[in-house]
Design goal:
Layout: H1 13-30, E1 33-39, H2 42-45, E2 54-61, H3 64-67, E3 76-78, E4 85-91, H4 92-99, H5 104-110, E5 115-118, H6 122-133, H7 136-155, E6 160-162, H8 163-181, H9 190-195, H10 201-216, E7 222-224, H11 227-238, H12 250-269
Helix pairs in contact: 4-12, 6-12, 7-8, 7-11, 8-10, 8-11
């Protein structure tokens, strides 16, 4: 396996070693090449609890012969989930197909502040494909729905609210705010989202307090309502947004096909 890239968010050395060993076992047992592996979830979003698990996501490539069959192989690999690790990944073909539809989850993988593994130049080319394929409509639809889901949970939870639901809703609302003001790859973590936005100091202080509560609470911890955060979530849900015409997927699919073939053939030539 290639050396892991340096993480911007700390992961304990022993945990990082364990994750790298699990990824190496996936490559060995499944006869695949992992080209990207990142942290996704609360530890990458910037509000892990002491008992949060490690959500590792990866993109892998099979050998050329595995793609030339009448019965295609399963396009997801999953390791058994336990109290510490939740590790799974998508086949490159699946990932590129989802990129043509501007899949929010996959786009977030490319901006994770914690990378365990990134193979050049393929990750950089996947990032460029993601940038080209970004559809703000699809992203907004996703984050509006997620914000609304969490707001419904919060607004019906008086007097105490799940800290986890609050933080999830806040991150999605910040993502909406970012999409209203910026273009390009959406940051995954709260700190990067906030850094690109102009938010009132009082709201920022309230957010910092909420995230500090999450950092010291277990996954099922609860907290009192935060009126300023409540108002922010509602404002992001109620804000009028002009609809944009969806871009054509024909050219994106052709680009995805070309990149898929390029990566598979190059890795086949290197014998993984």
């Amino acid at each position: 396996m290639d050396s892991p890239t340096k993480a911007r968010h700390p992961i304990a050395p022993a945990i990082r070693v364990a994750i790298m060993e699990k990824l190496a076992r996936v490559e060995r047992d499944e006869n695949v090449k992992i080209v990207l592996a990142v942290e996704s979830g609360s530890r990458a979003w910037g509000f892990a609890s002491p008992d949060s698990d490690y959500d590792v996501r990866f993109i892998y490539v099979r050998r050329l012969a595995d793609y030339l069959t009448l019965a295609p192989r399963r396009d997801v690999l999953e390791l058994p989930i336990d109290a510490t690790f939740d590790i799974n990944g998508w086949d490159l073909r699946k990932a590129l197909g989802l990129l043509t539809r501007s899949n929010p989850m996959l786009i977030e993988w490319f901006t994770s502040p914690v990378r365990y593994l990134a193979v050049s130049p393929w990750v950089e080319q996947l990032v460029q494909q993601a940038i080209v394929a970004i559809d703000p409509r699809a992203l907004r639809y996703h984050y509006i729905n997620q914000t609304r889901l969490r707001w419904d949970q919060i607004s019906h939870s008086d007097p105490l609210v799940s800290v986890k639901h609050y933080c999830y809703g806040l991150r999605c609302a910040l993502a909406l705010d970012w999409l209203d003001n910026h273009q390009g790859l959406l940051p995954m973590d709260v700190a990067s989202l906030v850094a690109d936005l102009s938010l009132q100091p009082a709201l920022l202080a309230d957010m910092a307090q909420l995230l500090a509560t999450k950092a010291s609470a277990h996954e099922k911890g609860r907290t009192a309502r935060h009126p300023l955060i409540d108002a922010y979530l509602q404002a992001m849900l109620e804000k009028p947004r002009a609809s944009r015409k969806a871009q054509s997927r024909t050219a994106l699919s052709a680009q995805g096909d070309a990149l898929f073939a390029k990566i598979v053939m190059a890795l086949e030539g290197s014998a993984h």
